[in-house]
Design brief:
With 707 residues, the chain is mainly alpha-helical. It is built from 29 helices and nine strands.
């Protein structure tokens, strides 16, 4: 999903690029492409023309224009109305957001040292601009006047939601603060913006700094041929002999699962799990603590007991107590299964002659071997059926089957890296719905993980509908000199997950950008993505695309049966692992006094009841937990499990009516995907489901209770 700084921009309701003719983006200042109309297909960003030196002056001009537009709203002699105040605020800052969308998305997907330095210059300016809006008493008074008179104004549902959101954005961002409290708010938000950037940059630097270089073939024992070939290609690209393994997941994960050399598994596991934890210039130990402490102070300043109370006020969960209740229910349901999962793997290792103390770097290795023995299904057995191009085609065909969407590659659209492919997305009537960017492979200029974001969101302005520019970014297995990109089953699930987010953006339908697409409550945003993962174990879906890349043979039924049978393998352990992250997140954001000790102690206490393997000194989640410290999920990581409850419950309707049923899909599209944040998600979900969501479907799917 979107980067942390980009989330800041969303929070202050800056509006994405482009009116119908882009008149406001013209400038006589320079030849800077960021300041001119984009004469490209569908007014997509001209990545081939944008250079590092263009960003800073473009931001300065964007901020200048946005300030001027804000001043006109603030100082208007006309009485405040919904149109001249609330709607005008929604539609201001067009140029600034256009620039921001390009810069901050590339800062995550195609960064460099100069961009990172530029970000440190830009962030204080954006924070100051945001604060100058939210702390503008005169402007807030205009908004408040409209809000207080809302019962006497004829507004539709979307307009009422925008008014309420605008008012809350002011009140929750310091508008009611006075005197020194306002100064303190400015100081805290400025410091938080800089710390989040540094935290993210440190994780990327530590990820890129490490490599495991192997020169002896004996140390490759156990590794699949494709993994070895990829490591050889990595070494060659770095000008090294032998084989190079990195902390990027397509390299790191198979090494842990397959390498027989235990000491090398230990080395790469410790490197991966100690990112940001070292006593060096890229340490995040103090930064994580500072961020948590500053967030607590910010919440207190705004009248909240904790930062979690502040965040959850605007979430489906509503308060920390409800989050704790969900996490504890799932913990109690999964604990015994998780303990059995680990015991089974430890006993299996012993049966194979393992006599050492069982450590975390042993878990994936023996877990994968046991899985292969129990189900005769492994990543390497399945990879040939998941050629990347076929998986993409399968996802596109699913979107067509459910929603009538057509995807056509357009190589004329500029891209920000040669790996990126672009597609025009049209509906059944030929209407352009979106442009989709797909970026799949790891590189040093890209942060780890997978996410969806947008270079432009959907909106209607001056009667003209602006369709979105949606991007999906992943870090998948790269092709080699002899084989195409062949995905693991987990990578197929990850793509379907992010493609679900993309559909949320592609199918957006609404007037106001801040309410369309994925601009929804954080604990609702994962529903469309996790919903799509359900299709990965459905034969009808797999038959659309899963064919052997050499023979063309469809994936055989016995392999599908094994995938389904193995789906809940280690589900208890995996659930406890996810819950531990949610508990750690809540621990940092539920503090009522400053953390003074090392973050290692905070982490140990937060996660100890979920730990089933030995805890290793100096190996921390806290120092590389980008989701909560620089990725917008602060006090919100629980939402992955919250959304699992929703997605399991929602997919049960499709199971009942047919997984490709167009009527059910139409209801899901109209009530969930198209609506964005135009209404409260609880209302939208009930409208689709005809009842409140139940945890039962998730517990059954996970195998924790019998159906």
């Amino acid at each position: 999903m979107k980067t942390a700084v980009y989330q800041v921009l969303i929070a202050i309701a800056l509006i994405t690029a482009s009116s119908c003719n882009n008149k406001n983006t013209k400038s006589n200042m320079t030849d800077n492409p960021l300041l001119h109309e984009w004469n490209t297909p569908h007014q997509t960003p001209p990545f081939d023309k944008i250079k590092n030196e263009h960003y800073l002056p473009a931001f300065d001009e964007g901020i200048r224009q946005a300030r001027s537009e804000t001043d006109r709203i603030t100082n208007s002699a006309d009485a405040p109305t919904f149109e001249n105040t609330v709607e005008a605020l929604e539609n201001k800052g067009e140029l600034l957001t256009k620039i921001s969308n390009v810069f901050f998305n590339l800062l995550s997907a195609e960064t460099n040292d100069e961009m990172q330095k530029t970000a440190l210059q830009i962030q204080p300016k954006l924070t100051e601009f945001h604060n100058d809006i939210s702390l503008n008493e005169k402007l807030f008074e205009r908004v408040k006047t409209v809000y207080d008179n809302r019962e006497n104004i004829d507004l539709n549902t979307e307009q009422r939601t925008l008014l309420e959101k605008t008012y809350k954005n002011f009140s929750r961002n310091g508008a009611n603060l006075k005197g020194s409290a306002r100064d303190e708010y400015r100081r805290i938000t400025e410091e938080l913006g800089m710390l989040s950037l540094k935290y993210n940059n440190n994780v990327l630097a530590e990820t890129n700094a490490y490599s495991l270089d192997i020169t002896g073939e004996a140390d490759l024992a156990g590794l699949p041929e494709d993994v070895v070939a990829q490591a050889a290609a990595t070494a060659k690209s770095k000008g090294r002999e032998g084989w190079t393994f990195t902390l990027h997941v397509p390299s790191y994960a198979p090494f842990l699962k397959s390498a027989e050399n235990r000491s090398l598994r230990e080395s790469i596991w410790k490197a991966y799990n100690s990112k940001g934890a070292h006593d060096n210039d890229t340490s995040n130990r103090e930064i994580a603590k500072q961020i948590a402490n500053l967030r607590m102070k910010l919440a207190n300043l705004l009248g909240y007991k904790t930062y979690a109370d502040y965040v959850l006020e605007e979430r489906m969960a509503k308060n920390p107590e409800n989050v704790a209740d969900l996490l504890n229910k799932l913990f109690n349901a999964a604990k015994s299964t998780a303990q059995k999962d680990v015991a089974e793997i430890v006993n299996y290792a012993k049966s194979k002659g393992f006599t050492e103390t069982f450590m975390p770097w042993d878990f994936s290795f023996y877990s994968e071997k046991l899985k292969d023995e129990k189900y005769s299904v492994s990543d390497e057995l399945l990879r040939p059926y998941f050629k990347l191009e076929n998986v993409i085609d399968g996802a596109f065909r699913l979107a067509d089957t459910l929603y009538g969407l057509k995807f056509t590659e357009n190589k004329a659209i500029p891209v920000f890296h040669s790996d990126v492919k672009t597609y025009e997305v049209n509906d059944e009537d030929g209407k352009l719905m979106a442009v989709l960017y797909l970026d799949f492979f790891p590189r040093e200029s890209k942060r780890g993980g997978a996410w969806m974001t947008s270079f432009r969101e959907e909106k209607i302005i001056n009667g003209c509908e602006i369709r979105p520019l949606v991007s999906v970014t992943c870090n998948f297995t790269k092709p080699t000199e002899t084989k195409p990109s062949l995905l693991t089953f987990d990578e197929v699930e990850t793509f379907l997950h992010e493609f679900g987010h993309a559909l949320h953006g592609i199918l957006a339908k609404g007037t106001y950008e801040s309410l369309t697409g994925t601009s929804v409550m954080r604990d609702f945003v994962e529903l469309p993505s996790q919903f799509m993962e359900n299709y990965c174990v459905e034969k009808q879906f797999l038959d659309l695309f899963a064919k052997h890349y050499e023979t063309g043979e469809l994936i055989p039924q016995h392999l599908i049966d094994k995938i389904i049978a193995s789906k809940n393998y280690n589900e208890g352990y995996a659930t406890l692992r996810q819950l531990s992250f949610g508990m750690l997140d809540m621990a940092y954001h539920s503090i009522t006094s400053e953390i003074t000790g090392d973050v290692e102690e905070t982490e140990r206490l937060a996660m100890e009841k979920t730990q089933l393997l030995p805890v290793i000194d100096n190996c921390l989640m806290s120092t590389a937990f980008t989701h909560i410290f620089s990725g917008g999920y602060a006090a919100g990581y629980y939402s992955y499990k919250w959304s699992e409850v929703l997605d399991a419950d929602a997919f049960s309707v499709f199971r009942k009516n047919g997984i490709f049923d167009r009527n059910t899909a139409a209801s899901f599209r109209q009530n969930i995907l198209e609506k964005g944040g135009t209404e409260h998600p609880s209302i939208l979900y009930r409208r689709f489901r005809k009842q409140e969501p139940s945890i039962d479907a998730l517990l059954i799917r996970c195998g924790f209770v019998k159906q």
